[in-house]
């Protein structure tokens, strides 16, 4: 009997999940427009979710952006015009791959700078101290050798006086 309840619960749970899923369909005049829509909706970031494209997000603002994207494409806007409009309205952050330059220079250069800093730190850590690799070991004088022999002999006998 419990297996039947579990199965019933699973069916109801899955049905509820599917009923909440957002299904938007837009009619396009041509397959090229639909392909551009797909490409641009993957290029634009949801301003609310921030880690999802407008294609993947179910946030109301992402729905509005998809609708606006469809309208602009149907009105004949180029890809660059659409992106310029979105950037003007929401800032460069709305693009998943922001343009290189100005305010995004640090964003683009950060990985390279961090890599170079890591390599520099690794080189400093692994490098022998300066001058230590070129020095010849100094030899002990006869007096120092005699003192060393006495200390070693005392250590072996356990006499620490």
C-alpha geometry? elongated
Kindly report how far apart the N and C termini lie.
87 Å
CATH fold group of the domain at 29-109:
Helicase, Ruva Protein, domain 3
Helix-strand sequence? HHHHHH
Give the amount of beta strand, in percent: under 5%
Total beta-strand segments: 0
User: Which range best describes the helical content: under 10%, 10-25%, 25-40%, 40-55%, 55-70% or over 70%?
Assistant: 55-70%
Characteristics of this structure?
mainly alpha; Helicase, Ruva Protein, domain 3
Structure description:
The mean pLDDT is 81. With 161 residues, the chain is mostly helical. The N and C termini lie far apart (87 Å). It has helices at residues 2-20, 31-43, 60-74, 79-90, 105-126, 142-157. It contains six helices and no strands. It has a domain at 29-109: Helicase, Ruva Protein, domain 3. The longest helix is centred in the last third of the chain and has 22 residues, at 105-126.
Fold topology:
Layout (H helix, E strand, L loop, with lengths): L1 H19 L10 H13 L16 H15 L4 H12 L14 H22 L15 H16 L4
Helix pairs in contact: 2-3
Give a nutshell description of this structure.
The chain is an all-alpha fold and 161 residues long. It contains six helices and no strands.
């Amino acid at each position: 009997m419990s297996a039947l309840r579990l199965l019933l619960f699973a069916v109801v749970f899955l049905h509820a999940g599917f009923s909440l899923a957002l299904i938007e369909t837009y009619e396009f005049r041509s397959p090229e427009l639909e392909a551009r829509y797909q490409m641009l909706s993957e290029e634009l970031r949801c301003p609310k979710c921030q880690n999802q494209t407008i294609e993947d997000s179910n946030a109301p603002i992402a729905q509005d952006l998809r609708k606006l994207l469809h309208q602009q494409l149907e009105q004949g806007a180029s890809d660059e015009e659409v992106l310029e409009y979105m950037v003007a309205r929401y800032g460069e952050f709305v693009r998943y791959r922001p343009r290189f330059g100005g305010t995004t220079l640090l964003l683009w250069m950060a990985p390279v700078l961090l890599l170079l800093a890591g390599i520099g730190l690794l080189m400093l850590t692994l490098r022998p101290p300066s001058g230590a690799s070129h020095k010849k070991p100094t030899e002990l004088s006869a007096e120092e050798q005699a003192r060393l022999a006495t200390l070693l002999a005392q250590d072996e006998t356990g006499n620490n006086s």
